Fold each of these.
Amino acid sequence: MLADKDNTMEKNLYELCVEAGFELDHHESDLYIKDCQAARTLLNQHGQKFTPFLSELDGAMWLDVPFAYKPYWDEKTKVGNG
C-alpha cells in the first residue's frame, strides 16, 4: 500500500492509477497501463517493476505490472472467504 500526501489514507498502485486517469486494462492479476511518461514516473517513484509491451489489439505501447490489478485479488479474497 502507498500513502497519499496527507498520510490519512493508504492507496495501492491500482487506485493511484485510476485516480490519475490512466488508461488501464488487465489480464488476471497483471495490471496493464497505457504507456505514458506520467505512468512511468509514478511506477518509478514507487519502485514498481514493469515491462513495456506492444499490444497486438491496438498497436499501442503498454506497461505490464505483475500482480498489481487489485480487483483480481479482492475477488480472490471473497472466494476464499465465501
Amino acid sequence: MSFVSADPPPGSRIAGCGANMGGCVGKIRMRFTAVSPGTGFVEDVSAYLYGTENRVACLYSDDLASGPIELRAGVPQSFEAVFDRSDDCPTPETIRAVNLILSGDVVTGSRQGWLLEYFLEP
C-alpha cells in the first residue's frame, strides 16, 4: 500500500476544530493506492488518524469501499479517505500517525501505517 496525497498536506495546522475532534470532521482527505499480490476480495476499508496525547484514533473513515470489492493481482486500486468521524479527543491535539486497513481474505487483507503530522487547534 502507498500513501499518495493529502488535503491539506501533512504538517498543516487546522484551526476551528472547537473543544474536541468533532469540529475537525471532514477537514482532512487522503488518497492511498493498494496493489495486491493476488486476486481476492476486500470486505471493508478503513483509515485512522492517531493523536499523541491519548493514542486513540481521534479521526477516522470507515466507509472507503461500499460492499466487497475485488482486487486483481498487480493492478493498483485507489482509495480516498475523508476523515468524517471522530472519537472524543480534546483539542489542541497533534496527529502523528495514519493507518489504512484492508479487511479481506488472506491474499488481500492488509494493514499499513505512516508517520505524518497535523496540528489540530480549537
Amino acid sequence: MLFEPDLQSNFFHNDATPSVAWSGTGWQASQDGTAEIKAYVVEVPDGFVPALDVSYGGGDPDTALSEKLETIEAAIAAAETLASDWHSA
C-alpha cells in the first residue's frame, strides 16, 4: 500500500482531473474512534486504482493507493479490502 497526498501527481499528466468511478458508503469511524476512513476507486488511463482516505482527528486525510487494476469490479473489491485491513498495515 502506498500513501500519497495527491492522486493527481501520481496518475495524471497534462492537467487531467482524477475521476472517481466508485465511492463506498462515505466516511466511517474506525472501531476505536480515532480515525475516519473512506474507500473509493479512481479511474485512470487503462484501469482503475483502489484508494482509501484515512483522517485522524478530523484532519486532512492521507490517501492509501493500491496498484492499478483492469476492471472496476476488481478495484472495488480491493478498495473494500483496504477499508477492512487499513489498521493492520
